[in-house]
Every structure is written in structure tokens, then in C-alpha cells.
């Protein structure tokens, strides 16, 4: 069966999908409806359920598997699923959540093994010990967590996928610009988003936790670095530099960074993060697009549509 994101407008749907998000709304004439985000291994799609009531809201919640019949249609340049029939999956259907959760294309064990290789290249003992300490503490979550609820690397093991991809990019950039401090780049890449294991709820029907909403992954991680340094009895410039790299990795205050980058490694980390996030979004959007056509509008890329060349 074709993945839900691979279908074109006009095609019929009759398949099992996982409810990733469910929100209720009211039409302009006061009629209640529900907006659902439904997913399978290929990704997710928005769907509307009209004329709903409280019973529907109780039944169709995040993490519930449903069998949906309907049709794909184009809504403002983006595919949407028009639901005609929907029911909750029964045990005898034999479908589990893991059958429907997207995940990194490389097995998580391989990705983690690749990440650990970079520890051997970090020469500074303080940076090495702090980074290893934090990775060890959150290893179980790092293996499975997504990097976001939507836009980029928003799938199981997406966080690990993102970090390993950034490490490869960081290595290539350090080879080109030898004045960069590899220890700070590698540790910065490994640590910059680990706060997401507290900011987000997990790989299934991902939402923001209370801590995530109130503090955010950047503040969470700065605290973690401070705690690790204290536990390991490390006091030195390295601690401040690692905190600064995490604090500034979004690049600008309006993008959520408490500080702008003020060391060259922080500036470079911001670019590496941005390149990898944007490439992940583009690769996935272009993967759903036929040559000679445009992708759907990509909100995180200034709402642009990208053309997929025929050549």
C-alpha cells in the first residue's frame, strides 16, 4: 500500500493511520469539527472531520489507530484528506503503533555507533567528559526521540539522525577551515538539541511537555551542562563556551536564541544546524513531488514551493 504522503489529489484512501494530533474547532456558522493530523511510515497529512460531537472527541485522540476511508484533495496547494468513513482499529486488525510511526532510514544503533566515534576526536578532557556524561545520562531517549513535532527530523530517532548528519557536515567544514576548534564544534553539535528529550513528549504523537513549553530545549540544556560540570568538578572556560554555543545556536534573538553567536564555532554551528534542518525538509518534500512539478508550500522555508527539475 502506498504511503499516505505519496498519494496525489483525487486518489482514494482506505487504510490504517495513526492520529498524531487532534484539535477541535468551530466553523464560521458555529458547527463543531475536528482537525486531525494522521500519519503512517511515510509521514503525515491533515484531515477534517465535520459535524463532530463530544463522543467523537473522546474517541479520536492522539495515539489512536484508525481505519480511514476517503479521498485526497488539494487545499490551498497542500494535500488534505477528506474523510468519508472512520473507525477505531480493532485488535483483530493486527496493526500496532510501530507499524505507523515514521523513523530514521538508518537503524538507530548504527547512527549511535557513528556518533560515539566522534568522542575519540575530542581532545580537550573537560569538553570530552561533560559531553560523554550527558550523552550517557540520556542515551535511551537519544536513541528514539524526534528532533521536532513538525518541519524537520520529526520522526522516531530523528534527533539522532540530525546530530549524526550535522557531525558529518561539521567534520567537512573543520577540514576546510583549520582555525575552527573541532572539540567545540563536535561537542556543540552533540549537545545543542539534547534538551529536546525533556522538551518533547517522545516519538509517538509528539507534543511539548510542560517543561518544554515553559523553559524550552535551550535553557534546559544550559542547565544540564552546568549540572554536569558541577558533578564532574569541572570549572573552566570550556563550560562557558559550551553553554554559549547552545544558547546561540538558533542564531538570532527572534529565532529563539537568548544570545547571538559570539565565537566562530557558535557561528558555524548555527549554519550547520540550519543547513541540515533545511535539507531534511527539502529532501522529504521533493521526494513526494514529480519531476516538472512544485512541492507544497514549506512553512519553515518562507512558505516557498520548490521546483523539482526534470533533468
List descriptors.
single chain, 311 residues, alpha+beta, OB fold (Dihydrolipoamide Acetyltransferase, E2P), Hypothetical protein af1432, 2 domains, five-stranded mixed barrel, 11 helices, 5 strands, 40% helix, elongated, hydrolase, nuclease, exonuclease activity, nucleic acid binding
Order of strands, main sheet, comes to 1-2-3-5-4
Looking at the structure, what is the overall shape? elongated
Mean pLDDT: 91
Derived from helix and strand composition plus strand pairing, the structural class reads alpha+beta
Helix content: 25-40%
Taken together, the total number of domains comes to: 2
Output the CATH class name of the largest domain: Mainly Alpha
- Based on DSSP secondary structure assignment, what is the total number of beta strands? 5
Describe the structure.
The chain has 311 residues and is an alpha+beta fold. The chain folds into 2 domains: 4-99, OB fold (Dihydrolipoamide Acetyltransferase, E2P), CATH 2.40.50.140; 108-284, Hypothetical protein af1432. Helix content is 40%, strand content 17%. It contains 11 helices and 5 strands. The protein has helices at residues 54-59, 108-117, 125-137, 139-144, 158-176, 182-191, 196-199, 210-214, 216-231, 237-247, 264-287, and strands at 12-26, 32-40, 43-50, 65-75, 78-88. Strands 1-2-3-5-4 form a 5-stranded mixed β-barrel. α3 (125-137) packs parallel to α6 and α6 (182-191) crosses α11. It is elongated. The two termini are 29 Å apart. GO terms for molecular function: exonuclease activity; nucleic acid binding. Residues 162-278 form the HD domain. It holds the Pfam family tRNA_anti-codon. This is 3'-5' exonuclease. Keywords: Exonuclease, Hydrolase, Nuclease.
Amino acid at each position: 500500500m502506498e504511503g499516505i504522503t505519496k498519494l496525489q489529489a483525487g486518489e482514494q484512501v482506505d487504510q490504517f493511520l495513526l492520529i498524531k494530533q487532534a484539535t477541535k474547532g468551530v466553523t464560521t456558522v458555529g458547527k463543531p469539527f475536528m482537525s486531525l493530523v494522521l500519519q503512517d511510515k511515510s509521514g503525515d497529512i491533515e484531515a477534517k472531520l465535520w459535524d463532530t460531537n463530544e463522543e467523537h472527541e473522546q474517541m479520536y485522540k492522539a495515539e489512536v489507530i484508525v481505519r480511514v476511508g476517503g479521498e485526497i484533495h488539494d487545499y490551498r496547494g497542500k494535500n488534505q484528506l477528506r474523510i468519508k468513513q472512520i473507525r477505531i482499529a480493532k485488535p483483530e486488525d493486527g496493526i500496532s503503533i510501530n507499524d505507523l510511526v515514521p523513523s530514521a532510514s538508518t537503524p538507530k544503533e548504527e547512527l549511535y555507533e557513528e556518533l560515539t566515534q566522534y568522542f575519540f576526536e575530542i581532545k580537550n578532557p573537560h569538553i570530552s567528559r561533560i559531553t560523554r556524561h550527558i550523552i550517557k545520562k540520556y542515551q535511551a531517549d537519544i536513541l528514539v526521540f524526534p528532533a521536532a513535532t513538525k518541519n524537520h527530523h520529526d520522526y522516531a530517532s530523528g534527533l539522532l539522525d540530525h546530530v549524526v548528519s550535522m557531525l558529518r557536515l561539521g567534520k567537512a567544514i573543520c577540514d576546510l577551515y583549520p582555525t575552527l576548534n573541532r572539540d567545540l564544534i563536535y561537542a556543540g553539535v552533540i549537545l545543542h538539541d539534547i534538551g529536546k528529550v525533556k522538551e518533547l513528549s517522545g516519538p509517538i504523537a509528539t507534543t511539548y511537555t510542560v517543561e518544554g513549553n515553559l523553559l524550552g530545549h535551550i535553557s534546559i540544556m544550559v542547565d544540564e551542562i552546568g549540572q554536569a560540570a558541577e558533578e564532574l568538578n569541572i570549572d573552566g572556560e570550556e563550560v562557558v563556551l559550551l553553554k554559549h554555543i547552545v544558547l546561540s545556536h538558533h542564531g538570532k534573538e527572534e529565532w529563539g536564541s537568548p544570545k547571538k553567536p559570539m565565537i566562530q564555532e557558535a557561528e558555524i554551528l548555527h549554519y550547520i544546524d540550519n543547513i541540515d534542518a533545511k535539507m531534511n525538509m527539502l529532501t522529504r518534500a521533493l521526494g513526494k513531488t514529480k519531476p516538472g512539478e512544485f512541492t507544497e508550500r514549506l512553512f519553515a522555508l518562507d512558505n516557498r514551493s520548490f521546483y523539482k527539475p526534470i533533468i
